[in-house]
Amino acid sequence: MASGTTDRKIDKLIYLLVKNATVIVPGPKIASEIGVTRSTVWMYIEKLRALGVEIKGHTASGYQLQKLPDILAPSLIRPELGENQIGHRIVHYFRTDSTNNVALELAAQGAEHGTVVVAEEQTAGRGRLGRDWYSEKSSGIYASIILRPPLAPAAASVLTLLAGVAVHQAVRSTTGLPVDIRWPNDLLINGKKVCVILTEMSAELDRLHAVVLGIGLNVNHREMPANLKQIATSLRMEGRKIYSRAQILAALLKELEKKYRLLLDAGSAAIAQAWAAASSYAEGKRIRVLSGSDEFAATTAGLEPNGALRIRREDGREESLVSGEITEVK
Ligand code: BTN
Q1: CATH of the domain at 230
Q2: pTM for this model (two decimals)
Q3: Does ligand 1 lie within 6 Å of residue 198's CB atom?
Q4: Index of the ligand 1 atom closest to the CA of residue 185
């Protein structure tokens, strides 16, 4: 896992450079403001350059940003969030194994509701069913959000739908791209996965301690590795332009807050309704269902208030899916 202290100091350095973007900031000034030696400042600058941040200058002359960096630094995201509880604390890593691992650890140590862990790169990003999640450096948003909702463990699955709706809205408003949600938690553009959500929790039988919403969104990937080309895409590949990850993350955290408040005020039925309005999979979609070792064809028939998917089998029998995977039948 990356050192949190180093990452906090680099965050201060980014903030200093952004605040003074029009001038050259002398090395000794940076060193004293962030509390490290001049040679450490140089090392941090090199680290930022390696991430694609354009910085002019050297130790003798001082440093100046050439353009605003697209780094998910807390000091750049937090000012966008106003009164949001979600994101009031952002823990940023340049590299970590999995933001969900870090968030689960922080939650066990008592981290507050709304704490966000975000990384430029994950070395062991995790997906559902033991799969791994491809996390290319500085290209995606890899974020885990700690929530402490007043819900029973059995009711927590609605939070995955809530996250899907929030990502849907944030991507729509920042890019205008035609994003769809496939039950329960895949976001698709033109039929390919652009975002997935891994919800994990720590709970006793009847008491929820914390939920971690792990969100992986492909933003500026130029292309997908050969083994994912057929099934995955990025916002850049679909929109044919580079997007600001910082702007999308800020929009996402604001949407999460709105939908979380909706859940507390109006209950899970309101989230199910918002999900159904955002997804072409809610009603009348012909699908194949993979549920354990069982596989069959069906048509979707609406979402239950608790987030279960109603389906009609080909023999007319209706039932509700609480877990499993579905794919569209064309
Ligand atoms: C899936 O494959 O169904 C879910 C993948 C979820 C990936 C995200 S990336 C941020 C967070 N950290 C992880 O290790 N996984 C989630």
Answers
A1: 3.30.930.10
A2: 0.90
A3: yes
A4: 3
